[in-house]
Amino acid sequence: MKKKILAGLLTLALAVGSLTGCGKSSLTIAVPNDPTNEARALLLLENLGYIKLDPAAGVLATPRDITENPLGIEFQEVEAAQVPNVLKDVDYAIINSNYALDAGLNPVQDSLGIEGSASAYVNIIAVREGNENNDNIKALVAAVESQQVVDFINSTYTGSVVPVVENPTDGYDASVDYAALAGTTISIAASPAPHAEILSIAKDILAAKDITLEVIEYDDYVIPNNVVEEGEVDANYFQHVPYLDNFNAENGTHLVSAAGIHVEPMGIYGGKQSNLPTK
Predict the structure, then answer these.
(1) pLDDT digits (tens, 9 = 90+) for 218-262
(2) Is there a single domain that holds both residue 94 and residue 127?
(3) What total of structural domains would you count in the chain?
(4) Claim to verify: residue 156 and residue 94 sit in the same structural domain
């Protein structure tokens, strides 16, 4: 009899515990785990009105800098390239547009909220400091800053990727000795989409001058900087300046921006939820 009573009390206790814990459950949002892109994701949530951040945190804000979180949002920090892969397991995910495109998502059509002006996050061509004025880099930059590339971005991505080149070139730099570069190869590391796709246009422009553009694709944010720092690859195209600055500071690398090409607005996507929560 005692065993039955104890079993009954245990069942009752579990039931009460279940009821007391069934109040308003928190939301889980996956965000990139690198410092600048996590901060960018949190700033997007702040702009959407879901959290408030300590203003002093700036472009390196983390969840610890959240001062108001009325919905009790919990954050799952994931390597940026892997965020789309966990989308089905969380309520929402904030994804960099290049990885969203890779995953078959359209940032303009599929996101539930998207960044507006994001001038601090212009995607750049980065090189090792001291190489930015070399003819091969200037030829590369001129090709990527061409009107052909601007037109390709606008027609292909329709707002998911936004060109920021103010004075597009005809594809070439008058100060470059293209005859001396003929027969050479320029190597550049890039993420598959949209960067490698954009570089396919620059590849054709350089090929007209008998210059080969070798595009090496990577799915992460670390190796592309390391191979440029070590001189194995001439340049890379995948990151924005806040990320590069933080990478240099943390790793003692010496990389600089050679040109700003486009912005990829970061968006929030529904996983288990199909609509943004009520504030």
Answers:
(1) 998 999 999 999 999 999 999 999 999 999 999 999 999 999 999
(2) no
(3) 2
(4) no
